[in-house]
Amino acid sequence: MTKAKSGEQGKLWILPPLMAVWSNLHGGFAIGFMLIGAYLLGELIEFVLIERNRRQSCIEVVRGHRVWTRTLLIIALACVVAVAFNPQGLQMLIYPFKTVSVGVLQDYIEEWQSPDFHRLEVQPFLWMLMLTIVALALSREKKRAVDLLFVVGFASLSLLAARNIATFALVAAPVFARHSYAAVEPLLKRWMPGPNLREKIARRINLVLFALLALAALIKIALPLNDQINQEAVSKQVPVDAVAFLHEHPDLGPLYNSYNWGGYVIWALYPDHLSFVDGRTDLFGDEILEDYLAAWRAEPGWQHILDQWGIRIALLEPYAPLAFALEQAGWALLYEDEQAIIYGKD
Fold first, then answer.
1. What is the pLDDT confidence band of residue 6, given thresholds at 50, 70 and 90?
2. How far apart are CA 150 and CA 168, in angstroms?
3. pLDDT of 318 strictly over 60
4. pLDDT tens digits for 277-316?
5. Residue 204's domain spans which residues?
6. Residue 202 sits in the same domain as residue 143
7. Phi-psi map region of 285: left, alpha, beta (phi>0 left; psi -120 to 50 alpha)
8. Which of 25, 69, 218, 279 has its CA 20 to 30 A from that of 79?
């Protein structure tokens, strides 16, 4: 969209088909509308500022803002239509709102909670936010409204839910790069007066950065391709042996499983066993997730919940309160190791 504003508006028409594909692949397609909305709001803000300061504006600038805003509106409407090309039709537009309205997400799922800055892996977000603010403050380049909306808007979303940090990094990086360079440019001109010298240094820095990124990508690709590394990583995270036991007994079930292992249950046991819950929390809603939590905690009425869902086998962590409750209720111990325990109902 930034290039389109510079005169390459024909490229904007790639957005509707991209949104159509995105909406069929992942619920995060709403981010696309947020980006378009930020550009539209940014144009509105700049247009209002121009109207208030007519002495520094001209008819061509005002007309340019109107044309660009009208083009963005048309593209936005085309994206809305494009999103409808999926099995759910226009209902897909409501999906993001349904997702964020699931209370269990904010209460129990870490990525939907505010980031914990005591953890080192989360702190780069804070560093980048601070550096971007400093770059904007020191930069002599004109501050665009859309840049400020990107930084403030997505930083706010990231402070509300850690899962938005990745999007903040994507939208803030170009803003930081442009304004940090504008901030240090006077110093570069003083220390390296020759433009050719600055270009040579910039090329070398780019080559080093490209080499580092290529090396990181190779390592990232190579590790998952190693079967031994994969098996060791999987066995540390999920109960491979316990799930193998269930695979050998497809007649047992229906299954109640720990939320943390739901994805692996789908991958390893479908269609013999279906997961009770898994990482697709947005598809289950509060009712099922609250039933799951109440049962896992062995709260009063847990037996009614399991009976209501017809549960006859449970795959749990050994420390789960429900595991102790099932033992006390006379369920049969079918399997046990350090990672998992399986109880069956006679």
1. low
2. 8
3. yes
4. 998 887 888 889 999 999 999 999 999 999 999 999 999 9
5. 192-225
6. no
7. left
8. 279
Residues 6+ apart with CB under 8 A from 204: none
Q: Does 58 have pLDDT greater than 60?
A: no
260 and 339 assigned to the same domain? yes
> Quick check: is 317 in a domain?
yes
How far lies 316's CA from each of 284, 293, 341, 345, in Å? 19, 12, 5, 14
**pLDDT one-digit tens code per residue, 172-220:** 999 999 899 888 877 767 766 666 666 777 788 889 999 999 999 998 8
Given the DSSP bridges, would you call strands 313-316 and 255-257 parallel, antiparallel or unpaired?
parallel
Give residue-wise pLDDT tens across range 99-153. Answer: 888 888 888 888 889 999 999 999 999 999 999 999 999 998 888 889 999 999 9
Please indicate, yes or no, if residue 112 is contained in any of the structural domains. Answer: yes
Q: Is residue 335 part of a domain?
A: yes
Residue 168's identity, in one-letter code, is F
Structure token pair of residue 257: 């499983």
Q: Is 341 helix (H, G, I), strand (E, B) or coil?
A: strand
Strands (E), the chain: 255-257, 313-316, 332-336, 341-344
230 within some domain: no
Residues 264-292, buried b or exposed e (16+ Cβ, 10 A)? bbbebbeeebebbbbeebbebeeeebebb
Nearest alpha-carbon partner for 224 in 212, 232, 213, 214: 232
